[in-house]
Design goal:
Blueprint: H1 17-44, E1 61-64, E2 73-75, E3 78-80, E4 85-88, E5 96-100, E6 113-119, E7 122-127, H2 132-144, E8 162-165, E9 174-183, E10 190-197, E11 207-215, E12 220-226, E13 231-235, E14 239-242, E15 258-265, E16 271-280, E17 284-290, E18 296-301, H3 302-306, E19 311-313, H4 317-320, E20 324-346, E21 352-358, E22 366-368, E23 373-389, E24 397-406
Parallel strand pairs: 8-19
Antiparallel strand pairs: 1-24, 2-20, 3-4, 4-24, 5-7, 5-8, 6-7, 9-16, 9-18, 10-15, 10-17, 11-14, 11-16, 12-13, 12-15, 20-23, 20-24, 21-22, 21-23
Length: 409
C-alpha cells in the first residue's frame, strides 16, 4: 500500500489526508504556471474580444501586477511606479533619520531623499545619492527647508515624539531655519539678521547650510556668516549660490557665539532671498538690524515653535525595524478556509522571505510556500502578507506580482 503523500495508488489503497494535500499542491503547481501567463497578459494587455469585455473570466482568483500602488499595508517598501514593483531599498551606506509621530499617510521623494514608513507611526528618511555628507545635507534640507522654504517635511508630521540620527555629530542637535528677503525697495538696504546661540559650551560641530539668490542692479553683496564675521557663503553679483543639500562639513564650528545674514544693496531695485538652515544645540535668538525698512526676516526654532525634539542616536537596524519590510494585500471574498498563493519576488541570498495568508482579516495568518495549499481559519477577509527580513541593508529586495486562488473545496 502506498504511503501517505505517495500518489502512486492502486485500487484498495487508503487515501490519506496527506494525499489530498499532495493532489491540491499539484493543482497549485499548475496555478503557479497559469499565474505567470496571467501576469504577462496583464502587462501586455488582454485582447478586447476576451469574454467580450477584454477582462478575463476568472473564478476565485485575485491578482496584481502592481500597475498601481495597491498594497493596503506597506512598511519598509518603496513603490516604484515606473517599473510597477515594490523595493526594500538599499540603506547600507546611507545617512538616515528615524521619525516617530502620530500615524499618518505621508509621502516624500524630493532632494534625493525618500521617506519610507517602517511601522505604524515610524518612518525612515534617507539620502539616495552622493557621499555620506551630501546625503546628510539632503536629509536636513528636506526636514527644515523642504523644496521652497515653506514646505518643510517635518511639519507634515503631528506630535513628533522622537528624532533619531545615524550621524554622531547631529546627536543632541535641533533644526533652525532663518530667512531674509526684499524686493525692489525704496531704500538701499544694508540689513543684518543676527542670531545669538544660547549654548556656547556644548554646541560642538554646529552645522549650517545656506542659499543666496541675489539680483543686483549695481554694487552690493549678500552673505552667510557663522560665527559672525566668518563668511561661509558669499554673493557679490546677480546669481544664486545654493549650498543647501551640499557638503558643508568643512564649515562646522564649535561653540559659536553668534551667526549672521548680512546684506548690502547699492540700488533700490535689487532683490534678495537668503535661506539658512542651522543645526545646533539649544536655541538661537534672532534680531534684525541695520536698514530694516522693507526688509523681511523670519526664523523657526522647530523645537520651541513646533515641539520637534532634539536628535538622539538611532539604534541598531533590528531595534529600529529598518531590517524588516512588510506588504499586505486585502480583499473581501465569499467565505473560504483554503487558498494557494503565488508571489513573485527577487531577494538577496542574505535576506529571508515569509509569505502568509489569512482569511479572517489578519487575526490568524498561516505561513505558506508558493503554490502550496494553505488551510485557513474560515472568513471573508482574504489577506496576503509578505515579510522580507534583511541582514545586509546594502542589498535591494523586490516584489513584482502576487496572486491567490481560493476555495478549492
Amino acid at each position: 500500500m502506498a504511503a501517505e503523500g505517495d500518489l502512486n495508488k492502486v485500487d484498495g489503497d487508503i487515501l490519506f489526508d496527506g494525499d489530498i494535500t499532495a493532489i491540491i499542491n499539484l493543482t497549485g503547481t499548475l496555478f503557479q504556471d497559469t499565474a505567470q501567463m496571467i501576469f504577462n497578459a496583464d502587462y501586455i494587455g488582454f485582447d478586447s474580444r476576451l469574454h467580450n469585455t477584454g477582462v478575463p473570466n476568472l473564478k476565485n482568483l485575485l491578482y496584481s501586477t502592481f500597475t498601481a500602488d495597491d498594497a493596503d499595508t506597506n512598511f519598509g517598501f518603496v513603490y516604484d511606479s515606473t517599473n510597477d514593483l515594490y523595493i526594500a531599498p538599499d540603506l547600507g551606506d546611507n545617512e538616515y533619520v528615524i521619525i516617530e509621530a502620530d500615524d499618518a499617510s505621508i509621502s516624500w521623494a524630493n532632494n534625493n531623499t525618500k521617506l519610507v514608513k517602517i511601522s505604524s507611526g515610524k518612518w525612515v528618511l534617507y539620502g539616495t545619492t552622493g557621499t555620506a555628507a551630501v546625503q546628510r545635507a539632503q536629509v536636513h534640507k528636506s526636514l527644515w527647508y523642504g523644496t521652497t522654504g515653506s514646505d518643510q517635511l517635518i511639519l507634515d508630521f503631528t506630535n513628533v515624539t522622537a528624532m533619531k540620527t545615524t550621524h554622531a555629530n547631529d546627536v543632541g542637535k535641533r533644526g533652525h531655519y532663518a530667512n531674509m528677503n526684499y524686493t525692489n525697495q525704496d531704500t538701499n538696504p544694508a540689513a543684518l539678521f543676527t542670531g545669538t546661540f544660547a549654548d556656547t559650551s556644548t554646541n560642538s560641530n554646529c552645522a549650517s547650510w545656506s542659499k543666496i539668490n541675489l539680483v543686483l542692479i549695481s554694487g552690493g553683496y549678500a552673505r552667510w556668516e557663522i560665527a559672525s564675521g566668518t563668511v561661509r557663503n558669499n554673493v557679490t553679483s546677480s546669481t544664486t549660490s545654493d549650498e543647501l543639500g551640499t557638503d558643508t562639513s568643512g564649515d562646522e564650528i564649535n561653540n559659536p557665539a553668534n551667526c549672521q545674514i548680512d546684506s548690502n544693496s547699492d540700488n533700490s531695485l535689487d532683490d534678495l532671498v537668503l535661506d539658512v538652515i542651522v543645526l545646533c544645540s539649544g536655541d538661537i535668538t534672532w534680531v534684525a538690524g541695520g536698514d530694516t525698512s522693507g526688509v523681511n526676516t523670519s526664523d523657526i526654532d522647530f523645537f520651541t515653535t513646533h515641539s520637534i525634539p532634539d536628535f538622539t542616536a538611532a539604534g541598531s537596524i533590528s531595534s529600529e525595524g529598518t531590517d524588516t519590510s512588510t506588504l499586505i494585500f486585502k480583499n473581501t471574498v465569499a467565505s473560504t478556509d483554503n487558498a494557494i498563493a503565488v508571489i513573485n519576488s527577487t531577494i538577496d541570498a542574505t535576506s529571508s522571505e515569509q509569505r502568509s495568508i489569512s482569511a479572517d482579516g489578519g487575526s490568524n495568518f498561516t505561513n505558506v510556500n508558493n503554490a502550496e495549499i494553505a488551510r485557513l481559519t474560515a472568513g471573508t477577509a482574504l489577506w496576503r502578507k509578505i515579510v522580507i527580513t534583511r541582514t545586509d541593508l546594502s542589498k535591494e529586495d523586490i516584489v513584482t506580482e502576487q496572486a491567490v486562488k481560493f476555495e478549492f473545496y
